[in-house]
Amino acid sequence: KTRVFSGIQPSGGLTLGNYLGALKRFSEAQDQGIETVYCIVDLHAITVWQDPATLRHATRELAAGFIAAGVDPARSILFNQSQVSAHAELAWIFNCVARMGWLNRMTQFKDKAGKNRENASVGLFAYPNLMAADIMAYHATHVPVGEDQKQHLELARDIAIKFNNDFGVNFFPVVEPMIEGPATRVMSLRDGTKKMSKSDPSDQSRINLTDDADAIAQKIRKAKTDAEPLPTTLEGLEGRPEARNLVNIFAALSDSTPAGVLEEFAGQGFGTFKPVLADLAVARLGPINAEMTRLLQDPAEIDRILGQGAERADAIARPIIEQAYDIVGLIRSR
Ligand code: TYM
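Structure for Tryptophan--tRNA ligase, as requested:
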């Protein structure tokens, strides 16, 4: 049985990278009629300190972002992680399955912890185990994510395989990452070799889903490019990371392909391409921004939606976690 699971952290706002790499694809999976479970991973967010009021707001804002981007809480399950205890419970079991050596290799931990590893939280180190638990608590088979999550998903596969081996069962499915489409790695608008990220100090490097039309157009107009016109073939984008990035963004926003975009714009300079891209981005993101603002006017309604989603999520995860406890040999008698 196909079941899609994915999550986004409520830390900082949503970027165009989150939208094209994740959110937009979440609603597409839902619209294909697949069972879809989407989680606002607040327990992951607190692996680095969050101001409590800011975290609450970011959680609601992210929920509004999901819905505005087309995730329908009636057709998908949408909830925040901490309301379903199976995540934390299974994460503990996986803390005992995963090896220190595996986690030591995680590049995201190295990046996030920086030079001062001694001072990073234990939660930040164990982060990928919780992510594996998110997926496995639902026996999810497919996980749509951007390229940057690939290593974490490989770890989740390793955990599933080791659990099954350790206990001689075939209980956790080995998940398939879905890293697909033209925008699996949206790059910074200032440096085509760096990922677009909510933590980049320069706001010019990213488009936020909360940016207004003027800000979006201005950031695209000022995006770093080269002086060459757009090439006729994809090979012509070799060694031109900024040009490639804008072509990929155009393709994703217009539901086309990079080759299709080049067919339309080959030989044209960025003076022509950028204004068309800016109009496209404003047309696509403007309505999402407006809908987010509207939804956020009623935070109680958002909380109600998350609570209902959590109940539905719990109904799937609870029996799975109970079986996992039994497989491990933990007595359940109350
Ligand atoms: P997070 O919150 O950093 O990002 C959410 C999703 O957005 C994608 N993404 C991008 N895609 C393309 N280009 C970019 N520049 C870009 N930046 C971010 C991410 O790949 C991700 O799909 N650990 C995860 C959250 C998580 C999760 C899970 C995901 C927790 N449990 C279980 C899947 C399944 C994270 O920090 O994503």
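Residues 299-328 form the longest helix (30 residues).
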